[in-house]
Amino acid sequence: MKRVEMKYGSTSIEVCVKEENLIGVIESNRLKKEKSEDEIIKEALENPIGSARLRELVHQGERVCVVIPDVTRTWQKTDKYLNKIVEEINSGGALDKDIIFISALGSHRKQTREEHEKLLGEKLASRFQVIDHDCYDKDNLVYLGETTYGNSVYINKIAMECDHIVITGGIVYHLLAGYSGGKKSILPGISGAETIMKNHSLSLNDNLGESIRDGVYAGGTENNPVHQDMIQAASFVRPTFMFNVIMGSEGEIAAAVAGNYIAAHEQGTKILKNIDGVNIKEKADLVIASSGGYPKDINLYQATKTLTNAREAVNEGGYIIALLQCREGLGGGKEIQDLILNYDNILDRERFVRNNFSIGKFIAYCMCETAYKFKVILVSDIKQELVKNANITVVKTVDEALKIVYKEKGENLKTYLMPHAANTLPMLIK
């Protein structure tokens, strides 16, 4: 028997699978830790991709807007790298009074002073204030033009009044945009609500019942209209410089890229693939997955990525057993809970998403669509009645889940284990 410990909330559960059934354990690739986080940040800033150094691009008397993530992205360790970016800007001659920090909230909630301090770190927080972008404040938006997708681009006015815009963040796989980081600091980061919703709505096909566009998936960019529309929106803004981090399997800064917001981001996605992208030669009948424990499995909404990543390793109609504690239940706002609770078929859910589209509704829809195409069993503390309409079964132990699967399909099932599925994307080699 193959025994693997998988995280579950703040504890762990041992998962046992027959060796002859196990295709493999899908884990992120570990990079050799040859440099410290500070060395990685310094090297990226000193060796920009497709650009001169930031200190050469900014000058005395020019206003510089630094766009930073919001508090939901503190895992990117903004407090580690923002001080280095400010040092570069100061070295170019720009004074503190000419540096503005704007938090790229997109459509997220406003933040507290304490959350701003967490993002900047203690030293920078004593020198600078953070402005929260408000996508609904039309008086603080400026119209820049229209993309070829018919999206009217409205961007934060304060940012556009600056001489330079420096975008920062982290690169991970993203359900809609293919990858986070780069252009996402502009759209949705500092865009108007109308621009954000139009962009995100491109994730669905034109007609009801046709569901998600083929090109819209984690890692998809080439035929992804959401990604392409974001790139076009960013072309109106033309950020001067970008700095993005790529995190390792233990939550450390494993790599960083800086420079031109397209060329450097593209290099960053290649690094990400080498860490979190795992090639597989075949799909399985069963995938047993964990998000990696708390807080990634704090609620079902946050754990959606675990299910959507796991489905990439299983044959359609196959089984996903997901170890997700969900100590806070469904999570998300009212519309997300309505989508999960109050519909019992995928077509009505799609109709609900199309009506006043939002990213939250789309993510919840992706979870429900996964449970429509695959047989999903949760080992979880969540109540069965909360997910019964989503066609999800809830049990208390892995053994209970396996009994259900083996009774329906037999015990000789090709199986993958995914201990950190929230951060690991299986990629089938064709």
Automatic annotation (TrEMBL):
A Pfam match: Lar_N
Gene3D superfamilies noted in UniProt = 3.40.50.11440, 3.90.226.30
Stretches assigned to the Lactate racemase C-terminal domain: 282-420
UniProt-listed InterPro entries: LarA-like, LarA-like_C, LarA-like_N, LarA_C, Ni_dep_LarA
Location of the LarA-like N-terminal domain: 8-206
The molecular function terms of the Gene Ontology recorded here are: lactate racemase activity
List the PANTHER family hit by this protein, alphabetically.
Answer: LAR_N DOMAIN-CONTAINING PROTEIN, LARA-LIKE N-TERMINAL DOMAIN-CONTAINING PROTEIN
> What is the designated name of this protein?
Nickel-dependent lactate racemase
